[in-house]
Amino acid sequence: MPAQDITGQRITGQRGAGQRIAGHGAFGPLSGIGDEAAPGVDGQLAALRRLGWTAVELRAVDGTALADLSPTAFATLTRQLADAGVTVTAVASRIGNWSRPITGDIGLDLTELDVLAERCAALGCRLVRIMSYPNDGLPQGEWADRVLARTAVLADRAERAGLVLVHENCAGWAGDRADRALRLLRAVDSPALRLLFDTGNGVPYGYDAPDMLRDLAPYVAHVHIKDAVRLPDGSTAYTLPGEGDAGVARCLRTLAAHGYTGALSLEPHLAVRPHEGLTRAGEDAVDLFVRAGRALVALLDAERPGGGPA
Predict the structure, then answer these.
(1) Which of 120, 130, 133 is nearest to 67 (CA)?
(2) Measured at the alpha carbon of residue 269, what is the angle toward residues 225 and 51, in degrees to the nearest 5?
(3) CB count, 10 Å around CB of 245?
(4) Fewer CB in 10 Å around end: N or C, the chain?
(5) Could you give the CA distance from residue 111 to residue 40 in angstroms, rounded to a whole number?
(6) Can you tell me the distance from the alpha carbon of 172 to that of 195, in angstroms, rounded to the nearest whole number?
(7) Once rounded to an integer, what is the mean pLDDT over residues 74-98?
(8) Which residues contact 287 (CB under 8 A, 6 or more apart)?
(9) Whether CATH 3.40.50.1000 fits 22-302
(10) Which residues pair with 128 in a beta bridge?
C-alpha cells in the first residue's frame, strides 16, 4: 500500500535525477553521504562518478559541517554540484545528534536550522536529518517532555521554511524504539516531521531493524543504507551492504511493500564514523565507499523479479 502519514496523507520521499533500480518497487535515486567517501568535494564527486550516481547527501566538506561553511565555500560547493549535474537528496544536520544532549542550548539547533533553510533552498533540497537528543541525567519523563517540546519548535520553524525534518533511528529518546518514534510523530503532528530509517543502526543499538521498520515504514521519507555485525566483545564492525546481520534486504522489501519511492543513501561507516572520531581519508576511503555502493546495487539486482531474494 502507498506510504501514508498519521493523518492518511500520502508520503513520497525526496526524488531527484539519480539512478533508479528496478528491484522490489521503484526506489528513487541512489545517493550517499559524500564525506564518507572523501573529505573534499572533488573526491566525493569522483566516488559518485565511479558508481554512475548523480545524487549526494551532504554532511560536511573538508571536515566542516554544511551549516558552518563560509558563504564563499558554500557558493563553490553549489557551483561544483551544478557543474557535475549532481542533485542533493538530503542534508545530515547535527540537530539533536549524539553531540547535543537534551540539556544543551536549543539555540544551536535553531541557528543551524535557519542556516540550512537558506542553503537547502539554494541546493533544491527539502529533507534535513535530525535526531532526538541523548539524555543527560534527566528522569525518563522529563527527557521525553523536553524532546517532544523541542522537536515541535523545530518542526514549526522547518514547516515555515518549506523543509521536512527526518528523524533518524539513532541517538536520542526516540532513536531505538518504534513506539517512541510514533509518539514523537503524533505529539508534534506536523507535515514537517517524518522519519529517516537507517538499516544498519539496529546492530550497534541492540534492536532488530527489520522488526522496527514494520511499524515505522508508512512514515519513512528517507533511508540510509549500511550493514554491520556485532563482535564477541560487544563492539560493532561494519560490512558491505548484504554481508552483515542488519537485515538490509528485509528492510528493502518492507519499504517497497509500503510504496517507498525516496532515495537510498549510502552511509557505509567503513572509513568514516564521526561519532567515533574515525576519518580515513584518501583512496582507501573512496574505494571502500565504491565497494559498498556496488554491493548495494548487487543487493537490489538480486531483489528484482526473477533475481531471487538476497
Answers:
(1) 120
(2) 60
(3) 15
(4) N
(5) 24
(6) 14
(7) 98
(8) none
(9) no
(10) 91, 165
Domain ranges within the chain, ordered by starting residue? 22-302
What is the rounded distance in angstroms from the CA atom of residue 171 to the CA atom of residue 201? 10
Q: Say which amino acid occupies 67.
A: A
Cα–Cα distance for residue pair 288/304, rounded to 1 Å = 25
Grid coordinates representing 43 are 573526491
CA–CA distance, 205 with 31 (Å, rounded to integer): 24
CB 210 within 8 A of CB 254: yes
Which pLDDT score is estimated for 283?
Answer: 56
What pLDDT shows up at residue 12?
34
**541523548: which residue's cell?**
134
Query: Following DSSP, what letter does each residue of 91-153 receive, concatenated?
Result: EE--TTSTTS-TTS-HHHHHHHHHHHHHHHHHHT--EEEEEE----S--HHHHHHHHHHHHHH
The length of the chain in residues reads 310
Q: If DSSP codes are grouped into helix, strand and coil, which group holds residue 17?
A: coil
CA 139 to the chain's CA centroid: 29
- Residue 249 three-state SS: helix
The angle that helices 178-188 and 140-160 make with each other, rounded to 10 degrees, is 50
Which residue has 519499504 as its cell numbers? 255
Instruction: Give me the mean pLDDT over the 248-277 stretch.
Output: 89
The torsion angles phi and psi of 265, rounded to 5 degrees, stand at: -110, 115
User: Which amino acid is residue 246, in one-letter code?
Assistant: A
pLDDT at 231 over 90: yes
Angle at 187 between CA 183 and CA 190, to 5 degrees: 115
Write out pLDDT tens, residues 266-279: 999 998 776 655 55
> What is the DSSP pairing of strand 278-279 with strand 272-273?
antiparallel
Question: Residue 274 has what pLDDT?
Answer: 66
Q: Which of 119, 137, 141, 136 is nearest to 128 (CA)?
A: 119
First to last CA, the chain: 22
Residue with cell 526473477: 306
